[in-house]
């Protein structure tokens, strides 16, 4: 994508994020990676609903500003995603209210309740809290970026990414829509998870259709436990690593299945023996 098109699309997406209340005030940030590796990003501290094309910042691939506009204070998060995911060309970070409610409650969006979400997005894990704009945040996100197309950031918000800006936005919108449906279903007495065989069929369909590749199977989440699909060894964050980083709520409690507890205990025993 050329720089002028990227500027125009970022302004359009910024307006949509604001109109849909995914951001208020100067919340959120959006970026596009150009074919030559430069990044076009929203400037820091500017309302995304009122941006103009000339207000955007351009940096090199390492985030060094090229020009006099100061990019988002969260650019390191965007650079991390571009680094970990060569297929990603655009990133959208916002604070959509229902998705962010999950992040504030210490919950991932990882229950297999909607067939279309399994097909097109996969589960959305929760990265542990890290101070915005610091390494704390990027380190909490790092192990999750490779296997997911959207993440929640505890007590902060959500980020989604894709091969272009519209795909990144669509994923953010799906995240928010799913969170909203999940909350409504809870108010109606609780949602019913899809059974393992239905999930397995959906995963086969999404891989055959090219919606999501095999790497998206490596999810430290509910789907995996439902399907028994094995993930590629080595790529998945160690269970202890994952659960230390995520899924804690304000009281410090975590919930585990029996299988996860056994895995954690055996890792602890193995560490003790070595
Ligand atoms: P910036 O204005 O620096 O992009 O920060 C906004 C934000 O949402 C931080 O989480």
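-> sequence recovered:
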């Amino acid at each position: 994508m050329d720089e002028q098109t990227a500027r125009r699309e970022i302004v359009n997406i910024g307006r949509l994020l604001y109109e849909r209340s995914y951001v208020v005030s100067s919340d959120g940030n959006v970026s596009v990676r150009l074919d030559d590796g430069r990044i076009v990003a929203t400037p820091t501290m500017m309302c995304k609903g009122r941006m103009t094309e000339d207000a955007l910042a351009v940096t090199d691939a390492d985030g060094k500003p090229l020009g006099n506009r100061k990019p988002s204070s969260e650019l390191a998060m965007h650079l991390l995603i571009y680094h970990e995911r060569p297929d990603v060309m655009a990133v959208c970070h916002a604070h959509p209210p229902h998705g962010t409610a999950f992040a504030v409650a210490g919950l991932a969006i990882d229950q297999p309740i909607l067939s279309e979400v399994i097909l097109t997005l996969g589960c959305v894990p929760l990265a542990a809290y890290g101070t915005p704009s610091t390494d704390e945040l990027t380190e909490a996100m790092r192990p999750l970026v490779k296997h997911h197309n959207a993440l929640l950031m505890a007590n902060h918000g959500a980020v989604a990414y894709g091969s272009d800006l519209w795909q990144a936005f669509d994923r953010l919108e799906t995240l928010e829509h799913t969170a909203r449906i999940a909350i409504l279903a809870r108010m109606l007495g609780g949602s019913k998870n899809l059974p393992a065989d239905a999930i397995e069929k959906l995963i086969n369909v999404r891989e055959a259709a090219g919606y999501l590749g095999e790497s998206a199977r490596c999810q430290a989440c509910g789907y995996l436990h439902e399907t028994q699909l094995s993930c590629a060894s080595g790529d998945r964050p160690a269970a202890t690593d994952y659960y230390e980083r995520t899924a804690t709520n304000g009281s410090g409690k975590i919930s585990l299945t029996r299988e996860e507890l056994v895995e954690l205990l055996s890792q602890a025993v193995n560490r003790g023996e070595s």
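The radius of gyration is 19 Å.
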